TrEMBL record, chain A:
SUPFAM superfamilies: P-loop containing nucleoside triphosphate hydrolases (SSF52540). Its main location: membrane. It comes from Azospirillum doebereinerae. This is ABC transporter ATP-binding protein. One of its GO terms (biological process) is transmembrane transport.
From TrEMBL, chain B:
One of its GO terms (biological process) is transmembrane transport. InterPro entries: BPD_transp_1_N, MetI-like, MetI-like_sf. This is ABC transporter permease. It holds the Pfam family BPD_transp_1_N. Residues 94-295 form the ABC transmembrane type-1 domain. It is a multi-pass membrane protein. The lineage of its organism: Bacteria, Pseudomonadati, Pseudomonadota, Alphaproteobacteria, Rhodospirillales. SUPFAM superfamilies: MetI-like. Belongs to the binding-protein-dependent transport system permease family.
C-alpha cells in the first residue's frame, strides 16, 4: 500500500474544542492539524486530561452538546461540522464507528446480544431474512466462540473481553472507513488485550479502514500502530511513524513519557516518573505548556508560543529546541 | 426462580401474620365498643351480655387466637354496628376502591410517563419547565382541595359530571382526575429523573454512535432501563391509592374501603376494621409481588441473581 497516492479519509485543520463558560473557556483541545489516510492505524498517546479522548470524539462529531468546536474536520471530503446532524448521524455506525472504553456498561443490559447485534444490522439495511445469519457471522468475525449460543445470552453473562468483541462486531458490521477506539483495552486483562488489538489489525487488513486508537499505554501503540500522536495539554506535541518516534523521540515530553513506562534493564525494573503534574488548562501561559516540567527548558519557552517543526517525512514536533533534544 | 418465589411467598405470609397482631392490638386500643353499640338505656347486664356474646370478656391473648383461627378460615366475625358478616361489608367496598385506584393509576401513567420522557429528552426546554411546574403543583396541592375545585368547576358551574356517588362510568371522572393528578405528578418527576440518568449512560452513547434511530434509543432502550425503578414505585403508589384515598373517597362519597375503615374505627367496629385493613394489606402485598415479577421479567440480571 502506498500512502502517498491515497486520498485522506480525515483532514483536520486548526481543530479546537472548548468547554465551559464563554468568558472562561477550557480549551480541552487546540490547534490540531492532522491527516488520516485509509488503512492507517494511528495511536494517540498522552496522560489523563491531555485531550486525546476529546480529540477523537470531536473528529467524528460525537461530543457532548455543550462542547464548542472550532476549526475544520473533513471526513471523506465533506466538512463534518457543516453538515446537518441528521446526515452525520447516518454516517455514524455506517462510515464512522466507535468503540468505547468500558465494555461492561456499553451494552444495554436488558436485551440479548443477538437482539442488539440484529438491531444494528437492520439499521444498516440488512434484509430481514438474513439478519439472523449475518449476526452470527459478525460475531464469528470477532472470534466469539459458539456464537449461536451467545446470541441468546445477556450482557451480564459475558466476560469483559467478550463484551468488547460484541461491541467491535456491532461497530464494524458495516465495514466502516474510520474506527475510533477510545481506550479499547484499558478495562481488560492483559491477555485479552492482545486479542482485541489483533481484531483492529484484521479489520484494517480486511476493509482498509483507518483506525484511531486512544490509549495511555505506549506498549499498545508500539505493537499495533503505524503512526503515533503524542498529546499534551490539548495539543499534539509530536507526531510521526511509530518506528521513528519510539526509536528516537524528539519532543522532551515524548522522551519523558517513554521513560516513565516501566522497562527491564538487566534484572531490575526501571521507571522514571515525569516530575511535576499536568498543568491546569485554565491557567496556561503564552509559552509551551510543558515548560514547567521540561528538563531542557530555556527562557523563550515560557514567553513565546512554540512552533511546529518538521523533522522528517511525517515527523513533526511542537518545540522550539533546535533539532529536538540532543 | 422457583426458590425466589417460595422465599417471597414465605415473607409475604410472615408480614401478614405480624400485621394481624398490629391490627388486632391497635383496634383494641381505640377503647371499648360497648357504649357505642348499645343504646344508652341498656342495663349493665345487657352490656355484659353483649361483651360475652362477642367474646370481648376474654383476655386479649385468647381473643387474638380466636381471631386468628377464624380469620384463617375466612371468618372475620360479625359487624357490631350492622350485625352482618364483616367480610361482606369489606367485599362490597373492595370493588369501588380497586376500580378507582386502577383508573387513577392508568391516568397517572398515561400522563406521567410520556411527560417525564419528553422532559428528559428535551432537558431545559419548554415542556421540561412545564413538567417541573406540573410535578410541583401536583404534589403540593392537597387532594381534597383539588377534588372540591373539580366539583365546583365540572359539576356545578359546568354540570358535566356528577359531583359525588358511585354507579355509572361518569361517576369515575372527578375522583379519577383528582387522584390521577396527584399520582401523575410524582410519576412524571420520577420518569424524568430516571430518563435523564439513563440517557447519560454508556450504552445510550454507544447506540448513538452506532447510528441507531433516536426513537429506538429513547423508547426501546432508555425507557425500558429507566422503567425498572418506575415500576417499583408504581406498585407503592398503587398501594397508597388503595388505602390512602380516604380523603378523596370522603369528598366524592365514594363507597370505598378507606371510608369503611374510618367508619369502622370511629364506631369501634373491630371485626370490620380488622377485615378491611387486612384485605387492604393483602391487596398491597399482592401488588408488590406482581411488581417483583414484572421487574424480573424486564431485567435479566434479576432472573439470574
Amino acid at each position: 500500500m502506498n500512502p502517498i497516492v491515497e486520498v485522506p479519509i480525515v483532514e483536520v485543520q486548526d481543530f479546537g474544542v472548548a468547554f465551559g463558560l464563554k468568558d472562561r473557556p477550557l480549551h480541552a483541545v487546540r490547534g490540531v492539524n492532522l491527516t488520516v489516510r485509509p488503512g492507517e492505524i494511528i495511536g494517540i498517546a498522552g496522560e489523563s486530561g491531555s485531550g486525546k479522548s476529546t480529540l477523537c470524539t470531536g473528529l467524528i462529531r460525537a461530543l457532548a452538546p455543550t462542547a464548542r468546536v472550532s476549526g475544520r474536520v473533513c471526513f471523506d471530503g465533506r466538512s463534518l461540522y457543516d453538515l446537518p446532524m441528521r446526515e452525520v448521524a447516518a454516517m455514524h455506525g455506517r462510515d464512522i464507528a466507535m468503540v468505547l472504553q468500558n465494555p461492561m456498561t456499553s451494552l444495554d443490559p436488558l436485551f440479548t446480544i443477538g437482539n442488539q447485534v440484529r438491531e444494528v444490522l437492520k439499521r444498516r439495511g440488512v434484509p430481514g431474512a438474513q439478519v439472523r445469519e449475518q449476526a452470527i457471522a459478525a460475531l464469528k468475525r470477532v472470534h466469539i466462540t459458539a456464537p449461536e449460543m451467545r446470541v441468546g445470552q445477556f450482557p451480564h453473562q459475558l466476560s469483559g473481553g467478550m463484551r468488547q468483541r460484541v461491541l467491535i462486531a456491532m461497530a464494524t458490521s458495516a465495514s466502516p472507513r474510520l474506527l475510533v477506539a477510545d481506550e479499547p483495552t484499558s478495562a481488560l486483562d492483559a491477555t485479552i488485550q492482545d486479542e482485541i488489538l489483533l481484531l483492529f489489525r484484521e479489520l484494517r487488513d480486511r476493509t482498509n479502514a483507518a483506525v484511531l486508537i486512544v490509549t495511555h499505554e505506549l506498549e499498545v501503540i508500539r505493537r499495533v500502530c503505524d503512526r503515533v500522536l503524542v498529546m499534551y495539554a490539548g495539543r499534539i506535541v509530536e507526531q510521526g511513524p511509530v518506528s521513528t518516534v519510539f526509536a528516537a523521540p524528539q519532543h522532551p515530553y515524548t522522551r519523558a513519557l517513554l521513560a516513565s513506562t516501566p522497562r527491564i534493564e538487566g534484572t531490575e525494573v526501571v521507571l522514571t516518573p515525569i516530575p511535576g503534574q499536568v498543568p491546569d488548562l485554565r491557567t496556561l501561559g503564552p509559552g509551551c505548556a510543558f515548560a514547567d516540567r521540561c528538563p531542557h527548558v530555556v527562557d523563550p519557552c515560557r514567553q513565546f508560543k512554540p512552533e511546529f517543526r518538521d523533522l522528517g517525512p511525517d515527523h513533526r514536533i511542537l518545540c522550539r529546541l533546535e533539532g529536538g533534544v540532543q | 426462580m422457583l426458590l425466589f418465589m417460595l422465599k417471597r411467598l414465605g415473607q409475604t405470609l410472615l408480614t401478614l401474620l405480624v400485621l394481624t397482631f398490629i391490627i388486632f392490638t391497635l383496634a383494641r386500643m381505640t377503647g371499648d365498643p360497648t357504649p357505642l353499640v348499645m343504646p344508652s338505656e341498656a342495663t349493665d347486664e345487657d352490656r355484659q351480655f353483649f361483651r360475652e356474646q362477642y367474646g370481648l370478656d376474654r383476655n386479649l391473648a385468647a381473643q387474638y387466637v380466636i381471631f386468628l383461627n377464624n380469620a384463617a378460615h375466612g371468618d372475620f366475625g360479625v359487624s357490631f354496628r350492622f350485625r352482618t358478616p364483616a367480610f361482606d361489608i369489606v367485599r362490597e367496598a373492595v370493588g369501588p376502591t380497586l376500580s378507582l385506584a386502577g383508573s387513577a393509576m392508568l391516568l397517572a401513567i398515561l400522563i406521567g410517563v410520556p411527560l417525564g420522557c419528553a422532559a428528559a429528552v428535551r432537558r431545559g426546554g419548554r415542556l421540561d419547565q412545564f413538567t417541573s411546574l406540573f410535578a410541583s403543583l401536583g404534589q403540593a396541592t392537597p387532594t381534597f382541595w383539588v377534588g372540591l375545585m373539580l366539583i365546583v368547576l365540572l359539576a356545578i358551574d359546568f354540570p358535566i359530571f356528577p359531583s359525588s356517588g358511585y354507579g355509572t362510568l361518569a361517576h369515575y371522572a372527578l375522583p379519577t382526575l383528582t387522584l390521577g393528578f396527584y399520582a401523575s405528578s410524582s410519576i412524571a418527576r420520577l420518569t424524568r429523573a430516571n430518563m435523564v440518568e439513563t440517557l447519560k449512560s454508556d450504552f445510550v452513547y454507544m447506540e448513538r454512535v452506532l447510528g441507531l434511530s433516536g426513537w429506538s434509543i429513547v423508547l426501546k432502550h432508555a425507557l425500558r432501563n429507566a422503567s425498572l425503578p418506575i415500576v417499583t414505585y408504581l406498585g407503592l403508589q398503587f398501594g397508597l391509592l388503595l388505602g390512602g384515598a380516604v380523603v378523596t373517597e370522603r369528598v366524592f362519597a365514594w363507597p370505598g374501603i378507606g371510608q369503611t375503615i374510618v367508619d369502622a374505627i370511629l364506631y369501634r367496629d373491630y371485626p370490620v376494621a380488622q377485615a378491611a385493613i387486612l384485605t387492604t394489606a393483602i391487596l398491597f402485598l399482592t401488588v408488590n409481588l406482581a411488581v417483583d415479577l414484572i421487574v424480573m421479567a424486564l431485567d435479566p440480571r434479576m432472573r439470574d441473581a
